[in-house]
Amino acid sequence: MQITATNIHKTYQKSLDAASREVLVDLDMEVSSGEKIAIMGPSGSGKTTLLNLLGTLDTPDRGKIVLGNDDLAALSESAILELRNRKIGFVFQFHHLLPQCTLWENVLLPTLPIKGDKKEFHARAEELLKYMELWDYRNSKPAELSGGECQRTAVARALINRPTLLLADEPTGSLDEQNAGQLMNLMVNINKEMGITLIIATHSQEIAQKMDKLYRIKNGKLVQQ
Question: Among 12, 42, 61, 125, which residue's beta carbon has the most beta carbons within 10 A?
Fold first, then answer.
């Protein structure tokens, strides 16, 4: 998925009494389809805010975001929901798997609102769990597995609807060095083999070096390194 963000501005106000804080200021961004991008910056610099805007979880105060051929400002709420569920995958710092569900059930969750052949969804879930080397654990619940295994399950869940954009917010932040390395190699391979545009917010220079481009957020703007 190709992405264009132009003159993006986002301000937050914690309470009615608090002063507003500019997080993103006339930010511009261009991402070609299939690229893998790292976004770095200190905590509070706006990395998560930018991912939320690109992922349609939030809206800018002003500016324009185009995902593929879709101008987000021109879409209805139902069209935004459809775009988010079918074309965008999310991976967060913590896996957010439902503890009462098995890995198999967790991976299939995003398919529940979609009408279609359940056999196709099940075949996709099997393909992904095998790709993540988790097939033998498909009937296990998150509490029975390691943090790395749960995070790989979260990646499988993000890919179940065949998105063209994968957004990852500190995906290795809760993992040890070995599992973090394994997860990042996996995501790099996903980008290469599936052609999915990958944008990662990270504090890790090692992760950033694996990407095609590295940006830092400084004073609310993106600066390419």
Answer: 125
Q: What phi and psi, each to the nearest 5 degrees, are found at residue 2?
A: -85, 145
pLDDT in tens, 99-152: 999 999 999 999 988 887 789 999 999 999 999 999 999 999 999 999 999 999
Distances (CA, A) of 171 to 55, 111, 182, 200: 15, 22, 12, 8
Q: Which two tokens stand for residue 168?
A: 């990852």
E strand intervals along 72-159? 88-91
How many whole angstroms separate alpha carbon 33 and alpha carbon 10?
Answer: 25
Which of 205, 198, 216 is CA-nearest to residue 55? 198
| pTM assigned to the model | 0.91
Residues shown for the chain: 225
For the chain, strand residue ranges (E) read 3-12, 21-31, 36-40, 62-67, 70-71, 88-91, 165-169, 197-201, 213-218, 221-224
